[in-house]
Specification:
The complex is a heterodimer of chains A (about 325) and B (about 300). Chain A has helices spanning about 25-60, 80-85, 90-120, 125-135, 140-150, 160-165, 180-190, 195-205, 210-215, 220-250, 255-260, 270-280, 285-310; strands at about 65, 75. Chain A folds into two domains: about 25-80, no CATH class; about 85-310, MetI-like fold. Chain A is mainly α and about 325 residues long. Chain A has a two-stranded antiparallel ribbon. Chain A is built from 13 helices and two strands. Chain B has about 300 residues and is mainly alpha-helical. Chain B has helices spanning about 20-50, 55-60, 75-80, 85-115, 125-135, 140-150, 160, 170-180, 185-195, 200-210, 210-225, 230-235, 245-255, 260-280, 280-295. Chain B folds into two domains: about 1-40; about 80-295, MetI-like (MetI-like fold, Orthogonal Bundle). Chain B contains 15 helices and no strands. The mean pLDDT of chain B is about 85. Chain B is flat, with a radius of gyration of 26 Å. The chains are: A mainly alpha (about 325), B mainly alpha (about 300). The interface between A and B is large, with 104 and 103 residues.
Chain lengths: ~325, ~300
Amino acid sequence: MTTTIAEVPAKGTARGPVPRHKRRFSRQQVHENIVGYLFFSPWLLGIIFFNILPILSAVYYSFTQYSVLQPPEWVGLNNYYEMFYVDELFWKAVYNTLYYAIFSVPLGLIFAITLAMLLNYRVWGLAFFRATFFLPSIVPGVAAAVVWAWILNPEYGLVNDLLSRIGIPGPPWLTSEVWSKPAFILMSLWGIGSTAIIFLAALQDIPQHLYEASEIDGANLFHRARYVTIPLLTPAIFFNLIMGVIGALQIFTQVFVISDGGPLWSTLFYVFYLYRQGFQYFNMGYASALSIVLFVITLIFTLILMLTSKRWVYYEGAQPR
Amino acid sequence: MATVVNRATPEVRLWQSKRILTAFNKSVTFLLLLAAALLFLLPLFWMITTSLKPKEQIFAYPLIWLPDPPQWVNYGKALNNPSFKFLLFLQNSLYYAITATIGTVISCSLVAYAFARLRWWGRDVWFAITLSTMMIPGPVVLIPLFLIFKDIGWVGTFKPLIVPAFLGSPFFIFLLRQFFLTIPMDLSDAARIDGASDWGIFWRIILPLTQPALATVALFAFLGCWNDFLGPLIFLNDGDKYTLAVGLAAFRGQYRTQWDLMMAAATVITVPIVVLFFFAQKRFIQGITLTGMKG
């Protein structure tokens, strides 16, 4: 007889012992299947109606010209052709977004890890510091954007004032096409507190005996960081890298509130451009095509990161998740 | 001289003694952290002081750091401004955040329970699919969802924002599932032997044990809704239904250069979150740690 009370394995498959009946599922298992699906049903609906169907629709609409006021009109690959060969703003948006992602994510990770290492030193006031660094990451995006727009003001802004006190002439930030993206990158660094705390938790998980062993072998601070800390942090780095890239590719709120894509399209980021096409110019078909391309770009990045991860991510346990 | 040191010989220098070195390191670290903390808090400080400055003091050079005298009336001006209907927006934000949070907690706990503690055919495949949906960028589903909701007349109401919350969210499902896995299966088995139904086990045995995790999910769901911008922007096109986030953006659109009013409005949206944070600090930190560790 099949055993019906079985442990749920932490990972892996859910199959219990194979019944030697003709029926695939015992009555007990059928019951369990029904119960399982009942509990699962809300999200099953969610997957179908808010993920799968919309993606399929987006693919469909991407082949149409759809201004909402009139029914969609099939245009085949027109939208994609226009996107890749005609639309300069598309390439500008891609460039701007990649520029932003490539700088903000690694910089953010470096600062977050450094901050986490400092916090890990068990200094006095750890709770205060943790709270202080974490707080900016939960400030509403719109409010943060407005505040930063003000403190990056070229004449009356705080940032340029502080820079001038140490003798550096402050750049024109958001009014300059060269400095506008760095301004956004700077803004993104304000929110690294949550990432730093994740790294802090990961750091605290590193077994102390590894440090002690390395010290016995003569490791100094740098050696310990390079050969013990960083390798054991790679799973956390990997996770935050993927989340960071996915998030960076979707930057929107600050663009909408502060820069409107300017000056001279230097801050025309991808999702903002998509929003414009769909909700200001009513090119729903074109916007859908843009969203599919975004999906593909995100997938490619994620896949690259995941496939290369096997080389540099070190898992303490037996197998990766 | 070197009596306190554990590995030192009598001829060791002061700066070589291990304890002094550690104390020095800790002090330097503390100072560095303090400097960084001040830098992090500076924008918030500036936001508040600017909101209280009389107009001449905002556009002054060299910069004035503290308002003199503090213009509390700026808050009155900002909150009573016809373009920034604060109380209305606050109400909308609360309505959205609270109902969506309730929906999220209910649905995600049900689904996480299914993934963690029930055995059913296809479970792990569906879980893998769930994880992959986390990679789908929001904007990709946004346009089709907007079009669908438009067709069924939901655009301009809160329904597009709230109803999906009752179906679950992959991130929180994942979080709760990890937590549910930590409860020993023996507990469920014992309850079953004692005659509890499947629902009974869930509702009366397992769920009460997961209160901390549920509280964490509720906190982060609430925060997500409060700060949500793109969703409300697209689905709430009626000025009276704006949430605080969208309201602030619209306000800025009109009063772009009136920084005192802008900062007052920004402060007013941020204060509830800061207050919430100070009360629920531990839970926030715990929640972030959970997401990072199990990721």
